[in-house]
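WP5 quarterly update. Target: XRE family transcriptional regulator. Source organism: Nocardioides seonyuensis. Length: 297 aa.
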Amino acid sequence: MHDASGSFAHELRLAIDRRGLALDRIRERLEQRGVTVSVATLSYWQSGRSLPGRKASIAALPHLEAVLALDPGHLRRALPLTRDRPRRSTVPGLEVLWPETPQADLLGRLDTRWDADLERVVLHDILRIGADRRQVSLTVRQVLRARADGPDRRVVMHCHDDRTAPPVEIRALQGCEVGRVVRSEDHGATAAELLFHAPLKRGDTVIVEYVAVSPSPGPLETTYSRRLRMPMREYLLQVEFDAAALPVETVAFTDDRDSAIALDPAHRAHLAHTDVTPGVAGMRWAWTELGDGRQSA
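C-alpha cells (predicted):
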C-alpha cells in the first residue's frame, strides 16, 4: 500500500485497524443500520482501488464513520475533489477481491499468475434452484481475451454461506479441462484451475464453459453475487426457479443500487449489465418477505 497520509484509503485503513473489526463484521453492522455495502466494496475502498462516488455510497459514509467510531465527516473530508480522483486503471490483486482468509488460502494453492492478463469480455451465469429451494447447479460461460502471450488457464472460485452443504464440484463443458481443485469444507468454498486446450497469444479469445454442481443437499441460499475484478462488455445472470418453489420477490443489486425484477413465464429472473465496471453484482430473493441477503459467490 502506498496511499498518501490523509487519503481516503489511508484514513479508512487506520480506522479499521484501530477498531479491530473484520470487513465482514463492518458489513454486518452497516446492515443493522439499514445500509448495504459489500465486503468487496469495503476492500476496494481501503486498498485505494476505488472511491465512494455514487449517491448511495456517499450516503453510507456517516454510518461507516459511526461504526468505526470516527468524528462525523472524517471520511467524507478525506475524499478528493471529483476532478482529482484517479482513474481506475490498475487491476486489483486477488487479495483485494477475496480478503477473507479461507478463500485467500485456497487461491494461494493454485496458479493465478495469468489472471490479470485475461481480459473479461462476456460473462453469463445460469443458477438453478430446485423444488427444495436449494441450489442445484451454476452454469458459467465466459469469453476471455489474452492481454499478453502465455495465459493457459483461468482460476475460478465459488463459495456459499450455508455451512451444512458441501462445496460445489466443478465440471468442464467446453474450451477447457479441470486441473487442480482445492476445497474448504468448513467454508463452503471451491477453487479450481480451468486449463485451456492451448496457451493463448496476445489478442486471442477463448470461450470457457463449466458447471458448478451442488452435491445433494445443495446450499440453501437466498443470494447470488459476482465479485467482478475487471471491466467487461457484458454480464448476464439468470436464476431459474422450480415451479414448486417460486419466490415472492426477487431483487437485482450492485454495490449501491437495488432493483426489483419479475419472473418470466418460465420462472426465471435475470439481470443484464453492459459496460460493466469492477465491483459486485447479483440477485437476492425471498420465499416470504425479503430481508438483507448475505453475499455468496
